[in-house]
């Protein structure tokens, strides 16, 4: 599975995203933590004249702080597969004396190693900063460990899933688009279904706020990272120590995503149709199903938006819903008909 | 030995390769010629393992290159695009190829760079198109592969670079028993250097012959008749009209040459002359009428 040459090749292909990942993690984690510590220290040394006791009493961290890193993880996957397809670089890679399975797994391993090292390095620095700076007077560094336990498997799953999307997408643009869509698909599709049911008189919004449950957040991979929230306030009379994260049992979900993505991705990469590089999809077989899915989702989305416009908040319009859905479906169908045969390749 | 057996490939519903069979022995330079879009590049990409055949197999020394790509240690492919390594510096490429190919000869590679006066410390993107093509060729030969596949290696190059490249290929083949498969539109190049001519037409191998055999099985003549070309001659299946200017006809005879010349003479031409023949004449005659030449 490990070939020095493939590692070097991946290094060249993915280095812009890898560097950006390390830099973004450094800026949004240890650099930001250190900045917070420094400003807290500055406040302690120059307290507000009217309330000198309130200088360093609260600290917060949210997973959304590293949302740029999550984008870059998807970008790395797109550089490793989609960009090769777009720039004809597959002609070099596939003519080399390596098994396709090894080529795919080397890409996966390359990404995973950098994700793990980037996160571990920067989160350990964060823990040290929390432990050994003024932040330790407010926050407990264990929240960083808890964040690490969540962000590591979920980031690997996001990367693996995006890499898997690369085995079916024909270009960097389609890989980025499809990765984004399918990573948010569970919560997005659920919203569309709930909206559809509501327009038909069945309201499920009250059932335990379905969209915010751990399971939905975890299946929508980026959500569980973004929704991580730690807030501590030790102001006198205002003791708050709040940690919002998914249950650790949910870690099984990124594990399943990763296993599925690696197994199916390896299988599909071994059977890739390089003659379709540059197109929206590499395989011709799934095109009908894909078209059906896109048309359905567009119809539901247009229905949700249009139904609201036609009717009032309390009395949604079913005619408006179906009219908008039909427009959305037809638009999607014709748009896709053009897009699916469009070839996007450069550098010949 | 490279063996392509019953390879077929359909792309976007169009049969691009149709039951292609091909065998190439070591020590051969084979020129793959055919008109645009007949499947030359597709065939080379199938042989290189970039594309999978729908049917059939490609073996090198009886090892299937699609199932056992490690065999490609012994073969390299130079695509028609010179952009494949453009982000790399020469040093990085050497490190990469040294890691890929067990027999990559670094010293030989640098000696060739010196010989062809190519820079050693620059990025490939700073090279001109001709320099890139020459560089990729040098790189390919430095892997010490036994089979080298070149897709349109001299496209867009100036005559001096082109001559250098061709000379270099001939030298390499004569020094060690390697096999070079070249796809090209430049028939004069094939004529100068190739031992074997592979003509491909509509996804099928039209013929695989030595250049000499190809030439000896054709004859080009110019004839003038009192009136137009007699129907008896025009309807002969092995006679192709390459050109007509007034009553002057340039004919290409394919096979059965002496008997056909007799028939032409029996029709009492005012003038008949045998013309020197180029590979281009054979190409036009075999792979499509003059009006369709790409």
Describe this structure in words.
Chain B: Residues 2-227 form the ABC transporter domain. Chain B: This is ABC transporter ATP-binding protein. Chain B: One of its GO terms (molecular function) is ATP hydrolysis activity. Chain B: InterPro entries: AAA+_ATPase, ABC_transporter-like_ATP-bd, ABC_transporter-like_CS, P-loop_NTPase. The complex is a heterodimer of chains A (348) and B (294). Chain A has 348 residues and is mainly α. Chain A has 12 helices and 3 strands, in the order αβααααααααββααα. Chain A has helices at 4-45, 67-86, 90-93, 100-132, 142-168, 172-183, 185-199, 214-219, 221-226, 252-270, 287-310, 318-339; strands at 58-62, 229-235, 238-244. Chain A has a 3-stranded antiparallel β-sheet, with no helix packed on it. In chain A, a hairpin with a 2-residue loop joins strand 2 (229-235) and strand 3 (238-244). In chain A, helix 2 (67-86) runs antiparallel to helix 6. The radius of gyration of chain A is 24 Å and the shape is flat. Chain B is an alpha/beta fold and 294 residues long. Chain B folds into 2 domains: 2-213, 3-Layer(aba) Sandwich (Rossmann fold), CATH 3.40.50.300; 217-292, Malonyl-CoA ACP transacylase, ACP-binding (Alpha-Beta Plaits). Chain B has 10 helices and 14 strands. Chain B has helices spanning 40-47, 90-100, 106-115, 129-142, 159-175, 187-193, 211-216, 231-234, 257-266, 279-287; strands spanning 2-11, 14-24, 29-33, 55-60, 63-64, 75-78, 147-151, 179-183, 196-201, 204-210, 218-224, 239-245, 248-254, 271-274. In chain B, the strands form 3 sheets. A 6-stranded mixed β-sheet of chain B has the order 6-7-8-3-9-10, with helices on both faces. In chain B, a hairpin with a 2-residue loop joins strand 9 and strand 10 (204-210). Chain B starts with a strand and ends in a 7-residue tail after the last helix. The model of chain B is unreliable at 289-294 (pLDDT under 50). The interface between A and B is medium-sized, with 25 and 32 residues.
């Amino acid at each position: 599975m490990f070939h020095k040459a493939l590692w070097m090749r991946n290094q060249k292909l993915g280095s812009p995203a890898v560097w950006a990942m390390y830099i973004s993690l450094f800026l949004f984690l240890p650099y930001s933590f250190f900045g917070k510590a420094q400003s807290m220290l500055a406040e302690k040394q120059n307290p507000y004249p009217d309330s000198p006791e309130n200088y360093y009493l609260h600290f917060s961290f949210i997973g959304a702080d590293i949302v740029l890193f999550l984008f870059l993880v998807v970008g790395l996957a797109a550089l490793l597969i989609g960009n090769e397809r777009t720039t004809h670089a597959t002609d070099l890679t596939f003519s080399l004396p390596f098994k396709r399975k090894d080529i795919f797994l080397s890409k996966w391993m390359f990404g995973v190693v950098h994700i793990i090292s980037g996160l571990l390095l920067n989160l350990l620095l964060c823990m040290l900063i929390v432990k050994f700076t003024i932040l330790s007077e407010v926050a407990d560094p264990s929240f960083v460990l808890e964040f690490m336990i969540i962000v590591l498997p979920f980031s690997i799953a996001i990367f693996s899933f995006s890499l898997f999307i690369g085995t079916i997408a024909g270009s960097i643009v389609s890989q980025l688009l499809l990765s984004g869509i399918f990573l948010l698909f569970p919560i997005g599709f659920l919203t569309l279904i709930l909206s559809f049911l509501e327009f038909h008189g069945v309201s499920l919004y009250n059932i335990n706020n379905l969209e915010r449950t751990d399971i939905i957040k975890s299946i929508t991979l980026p959500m569980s990272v973004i929704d991580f929230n730690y807030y501590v306030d030790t102001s006198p009379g205002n003791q708050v120590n709040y940690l919002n994260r998914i249950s650790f049992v949910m870690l099984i979900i990124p594990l399943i995503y990763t296993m599925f993505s690696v197994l199916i991705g390896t299988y599909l990469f071994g059977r890739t149709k390089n003659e379709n590089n540059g197109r929206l999809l590499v395989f011709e077989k799934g095109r009908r199903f894909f078209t059906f899915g896109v048309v359905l989702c567009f119809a539901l989305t247009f229905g949700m938006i249009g139904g609201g416009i036609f009717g009032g908040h309390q009395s949604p319009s079913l005619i408006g819903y179906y009219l908008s859905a039909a427009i959305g479906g037809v638009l999607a169908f014709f748009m896709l008909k053009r897009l699916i045969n469009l070839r996007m390749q450069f550098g010949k | 030995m490279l063996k392509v057996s019953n390879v077929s490939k359909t792309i976007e519903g169009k049969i691009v390769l149709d039951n292609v069979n091909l065998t190439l022995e070591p020590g051969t330079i084979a020129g793959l010629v055919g008109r645009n879009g007949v499947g030359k590049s597709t065939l080379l990409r199938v042989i290189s393992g970039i594309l999978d055949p729908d049917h059939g197999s490609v073996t090198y020394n009886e090892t299937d290159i699609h199932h056992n790509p490690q065999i490609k240690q012994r073969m390299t492919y130079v695509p028609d695009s010179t952009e494949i390594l453009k982000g790399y510096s020469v040093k990085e490429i050497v490190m990469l190829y040294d890691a890929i190919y067990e027999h990559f000869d670094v010293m030989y590679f640098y000696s060739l760079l010196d010989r062809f006066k190519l820079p050693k410390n620059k990025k490939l993107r700073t090279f001109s198109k001709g320099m890139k093509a020459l560089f990729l060729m040098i790189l390919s030969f430095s892997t010490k592969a036994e089979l080298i596949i070149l897709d349109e290696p001299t496209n867009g190059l100036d005559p001096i670079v082109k001559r250098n490249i061709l000379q270099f290929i001939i030298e390499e083949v004569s020094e060690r028993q390697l096999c070079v498969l070249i796809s090209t539109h430049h028939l004069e190049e094939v004529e100068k250097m190739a031992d074997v001519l592979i003509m491909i037409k509509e996804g099928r191998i039209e013929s695989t012959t030595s250049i000499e055999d190809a030439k000896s099985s054709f004859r080009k003549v110019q004839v003038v008749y009192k009136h137009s070309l007699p129907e008896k001659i025009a309807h002969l299946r092995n006679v192709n009209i390459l050109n007509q200017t007034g009553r002057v006809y340039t004919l290409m005879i394919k096979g059965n040459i002496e008997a056909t010349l007799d028939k032409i003479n029996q029709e009492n031409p005012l003038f008949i002359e045998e013309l020197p023949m180029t590979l281009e004449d054979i190409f036009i005659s075999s792979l499509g009428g003059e009006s369709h030449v790409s």
